From TrEMBL:
It comes from Moschus moschiferus (Siberian musk deer). Gene3D superfamilies: 2.160.20.120. This is Family with sequence similarity 185 member A. Residues 1-26 form the signal peptide. It comes from the Eukaryota. Keywords: Signal. The gene is FAM185A.
Length: 371
């Protein structure tokens, strides 16, 4: 199973718990006030009913352009989901709710929610807010997102389809679930990045320090992911061109389908690369200090160049014109996997200080091994 998929549930549970706390203390008196919608000016949102049953402390409803964007700068948890299309067929609202805050409305004094009609931009900004607060936004499906969370604030984006999605966190986890964005940029200086379901787009994920990146399935023409000291794990990767790198973490790629003209580059300074290649153009794997395991579909045809301190190839791997050369303290094996002619598809794996293991296996086996 996917190792971190439990996190979201854990967080949800935490939120619910806080809701019940609030309810028990009866902090929110007014459960039935109507929320009003100020539309025309577009600038003053409104506001505000507390709904103890749902644990909501404050709520805004803004009339917006369906093709605007959201800019959030928050030190707490933020979830973005699409508006319910049945309730809002015109897709022209942004609904913001805040829950999970101790200390009632006063604790929200620093939170500003605004819509700039000229910029078509909703801003949700707070410098200081209870870091246990949880802000939920329901936005038009096509809304662009520009989100920065500070401290331990987590960001979760689900089912959005936009042109640009940019998420930056410090220590907080970023969860993207079934997101389609032409350009998707995620950056964190210490939080986990988790992609669930399929995430589509040109994707750039940069995770520094000990941040890990774990991905179910990414699909896009260009995908770049880097970690520093954390695991980079991708279960399925469908791409024309991908650059994956890690300074000191391992890189694990369940199944890579790049198109026959595409390329996959995975580079680890220190660690291990483990990859299953089912279709490919050019695959280049390098670990400066560590080992590489390459598993290929048994039908794969490619030119091979494997170099390392040691090469370990199963006897059932069928290499034509195999050549083995020894250099200072290593070995280089070249040859053609299942064919003799085509040079335009290749796999290069280089582990100068470690072992390159090469295995042929069925796609079915590769699936079993992943779970
Ligand atoms: C990925 O990196 C390559 C090479 O640095 C760059 O050309 C490409 O635009 C990047 N793609 C994304 C989606 O950031
Ligand atoms: C198409 C083809 O020749 N496939 C063979 C490739 O090599 C593997 C072993 O590495 C065989 O099992 C396949 O039958």
């Amino acid at each position: 199973m996917f190792p971190f998929s439990g996190w979201g549930l854990g967080c949800l549970r935490l939120c619910l718990l806080r809701v019940w706390t609030g309810e028990a203390t009866g902090r929110w008196a007014c459960g039935t006030c109507q929320s009003r919608l100020y539309g025309s000016g577009g600038s003053q949102p409104e506001v505000s009913r507390s709904d103890p049953a749902r644990g909501i402390l404050k709520e805004w409803a803004l009339l917006v352009s369906p093709f605007g964007r959201l800019r959030a700068r928050l030190p707490c948890h933020l979830t973005v989901r699409p508006l319910d299309p049945l309730t809002y067929p015109d897709g022209d609202r942004v609904l913001v709710t805040v829950s999970g805050v101790e200390g009632g409305a006063r604790a929200l004094a620093g939170l500003q929610v605004n819509y700039d009609e000229a910029q078509k931009e909703v801003t949700i900004v707070a410098d200081v807010i209870d870091h246990q607060a949880s802000v939920e936004v329901n936005a038009p499906l096509k809304f662009d997102l520009n989100i920065q969370s500070s401290g331990s604030g987590c960001v979760k984006v689900q089912n959005i389809e936009c042109d640009n999605c940019k998420i930056e966190t410090e220590q907080g986890t970023s969860i993207l679930q079934s997101v389609k964005s032409q350009k998707l940029h995620v950056q964190t200086t210490g939080g986990k990045v988790i992609c669930l379901g399929t995430v589509y787009g040109d994707i750039d994920i940069r995770a520094s320090d000990k941040s890990t990146v774990t991905v179910d399935k990414l699909q896009g023409s260009s995908i770049n992911i880097s970690t520093e000291d954390g695991l980079l794990k991708v279960k399925y990767l469908y791409t024309e061109s991908s650059f994956l790198s890690s300074a000191a973490g391992d890189i694990t790629l369940g199944s890579v389908h790049d198109s026959s003209s595409g390329c996959l580059n995975a580079l680890a300074q220190q660690g291990a690369i483990d990859v299953y290649v089912s279709e490919l153009g050019k695959v280049e794997l390098k670990v400066h200090k560590g080992s590489i395991l390459v598993k290929v579909a048994s039908s794969l045809q490619a030119y091979l160049q494997l170099s390392g301190k040691e090469i370990d190839m199963n006897s059932d791997v069928h290499v034509e014109e195999m050549n083995e050369a020894h250099r200072d303290d290593g070995v280089i094996i070249t040859g053609f996997l299942n064919q003799t002619s085509k040079h335009e598809k290749w796999i290069k794996a280089d582990a100068p200080k470690g072992t390159v293991r090469f295995r042929s296996q069925s796609w079915f086996q590769s699936l079993k091994l992943q779970d």
